[in-house]
Amino acid sequence: MTSSHRPLPRVIAVANQKGGVGKTTTTINLGACLAELGYRTLIVDLDPQGNASTGLGIENRGLETSMYHVIMHEVPIENCVEPSSVKNLFVAPASLDLAGAEIELVPAFSRENRLRKAIEAVSDDYDYVLIDCPPSLGLLTVNGLTAAGEVLVPIQCEYYALEGLGQLLRNVDLVKRNLNPTLEVSTIVCVMYDARTKLADQVVKEVREHFGDKVCRSVVPRTVRLSEAPSFGQPIITFDPTSRGATAYRGVAKEVSGGPAERSR
Q1: Are the CB atoms for 176 and 207 separated by under 8 Å?
Q2: 100: how many CB neighbours lie within 10 A of its CB?
């Protein structure tokens, strides 16, 4: 299909350099919900831990080709794409070799643009590309931000939630100024919300005051089912389709696909 028939995919980097903030959970479940809405969606796993891959049932040990080969050896990304168990949802898996790519990339030519070129080559095949960036601000994350048109930031509704966010925003700005002038933080998702605590409400209020209509109205609760699903290699919409987590991520997917108009309704 030529690009004249199909608009370019929305390429979204999911980033937050703090670990354990629900970044991979958000990537997996947003991807699955977009796929459920009928959008062909590719999840690019850039995190050497490979949790987005295993969380969708893709065993990332002993892979012949992974994102390491795409980034380091310029292997076409379609050579490593695997279908998931969800219709319309595909994964370009990570492997532990990616940990070494941070160091190997340092002297590499055009090192920040490796991922952008790889995604451009398959831009006719997908409506959405979600990039699960590592929880650091190294060259892999820079590749993710350079390839993306927008950044989605999951923020956990806990103490210190906004800590480190300033650094992420500065880095997005650096990439925007030097490598990718159209990059924008488009979406903030409040995750790990615990309705029993006053603090969670305070964090959501503070985030909304900071970021206005970039913040999704759908707030993702902290639930046991959401944290169990990845160990079964499934997104929440197949693991427990009627759970609060599934409802929340379906809401996030509608808001992401509908844009600010959907959020301000």
Answers
A1: no
A2: 12
How many residues in total does the chain contain?
265
What SS3 class is residue 151?
A: strand
Quick one: pLDDT band at residue 62, thresholds 50, 70, 90? confident
Mean pLDDT of 59-75: 91
> Which residues, other chains included, contact 3 with Cβ-Cβ below 8 Å and sequence gap of 6+?
123, 124
Q: Are 145 and 15 in contact (CB under 8 A)?
A: yes
CA distance 28 to 36: 12
Average pLDDT, the chain: 91
Residue 71 CB contacts under 8 Å (≥ 6 apart), including other chains: 98, 101, 105, 114, 115, 118, 140, 143
> Taking a C-beta distance cutoff of 8 angstroms, is the pair 218, 255 a contact?
yes
Q: Which residues of 207-237 are buried (b: 16+ CB within 10 A; e: fewer)?
A: beeeeeebbbebbbbbbeebeebbeebbbbb
Q: Are 145 and 46 within 8 A, CB to CB? A: no
